[in-house]
Every structure is written in C-alpha cells, then in structure tokens.
Design goal:
The chain is an alpha+beta fold. It is 28% helix and 36% strand. The chain has a single domain, classed as Gcn5-related N-acetyltransferase (GNAT) (Aminopeptidase). Helix 1 packs across helix 3.
Length: 185
C-alpha cells in the first residue's frame, strides 16, 4: 500500500464523487429499487435503518482500506445543499493491495440514465483507482443481460476478457457475467 492517496472527493467540473456518509441513508433507500438493482449484487433496501447499517459497514471498510464507496452528485450555486442532486453511487471494492487490483461497481437512479453522468463518474473512479490508489488493474463483473453497463465500461476503455458462467445469482436465477478490465499501462 505504498504511495497511495485516499481521495474523499473529486470532480470533473460537472460531476462530483464524494465519500458516502450516514446522511446518504435515505437517498440509498429511496434509490435502490428493483429497477436499479435487478442487475446488481445488492437487493432493494428494506428500510432506512438498514441503509444506515450498510453505510456504517462501508465506512469501516473505508477505514481499513478494503473498499471505497462514493456518492455521485451534481452541484450548482456554491454547493448549497438544496442545489445538490444525488445521482447514484460508485465504488472500488474487492481490493487486493498485494496484486494492485480492485473491482468497480456503479449504479444510478433511473431518472439519470442515458445522460452521460455514469461515463463521467466512471472516468473519475478510474483516475482514483489507477493514479491515486496506484492500482495496476481494475475490473468489473457485469451481468450479460446488462448491455447498457457493459457498453458504458467499453466506452470508458475497458476490454472484455471473457464470460464467467453462472457467476451471479440475480432475480432468482444464476446468470453469466462479462469480465471487463482496464490496465494502467
């Protein structure tokens, strides 16, 4: 873990990523509905209390440098709270510091789909992973049915390495996943 810089907030001038906090519990609860989670390894959240527990777990993982979860935001007018729109979340997880690699996961509230925000967020998390955390390899395992997400990662420079048979259990069935990766060099 030499030469790493933990980034709590980053922006490209339009989209912001910031460290998730307990104040995001209501947002997570309201956003993680079936439409959003059907291709993810997380189920819809059962309550705001459960959301708070999940965020506490994320904070522990952050402190141990095991996982970094961010909220994706749009901000206007000097970041006044009423001018902040929370779009979704993106994370670097399943980190192996020994092998300089990690996985990327992303989701957006459905009202923000197809507007370019996911691409901006993914490009920011690539910067954090490859340059600030000094990872050599980042990857994503995406359900083959999630064509939009697969295309997003490819547009952001990831290469498709293969197909993982029955890798995910989603919606009551085993599903194949596409393995996508991006190398620093």
């Amino acid at each position: 873990m030499n030469n790493i810089e933990i980034v709590e907030e980053i922006t490209d001038g339009k989209v912001f990523l910031r460290k998730i906090s307990e104040e995001d519990a209501k947002f997570l609860y309201k956003s993680l509905k079936k439409e959003v989670t059907k291709h993810l390894s997380i189920n819809p959240l059962s309550s705001i209390e459960y959301s708070k527990k999940l965020i506490k777990r994320y904070e522990k993982y952050w402190d141990k440098k095991l996982q970094f979860n961010y909220v994706i935001e749009l901000r206007q007018n000097n970041n006044k709270e009423k001018d902040v729109k929370k779009l979704g979340s993106i994370s670097i997880w399943n980190l192996s510091w020994r092998h300089f690699r990690g996985e990327i996961g992303i989701w957006l509230n459905s009202r923000y789909w197809k507007q370019g925000y996911a691409k901006r967020a993914l490009n920011l998390i690539k910067l954090i992973a490859l340059h600030h955390l000094n990872l050599n390899r980042i990857e994503a395992h995406i359900a083959v049915k999630n064509k939009r997400s697969i295309n997003l990662f490819i547009k952001c420079g990831f290469s498709q390495e293969g197909r993982l048979k029955s890798y995910l259990y989603l919606d009551g069935e085993f599903q194949d996943a596409v393995l996508l990766s991006l190398l620093r060099n």
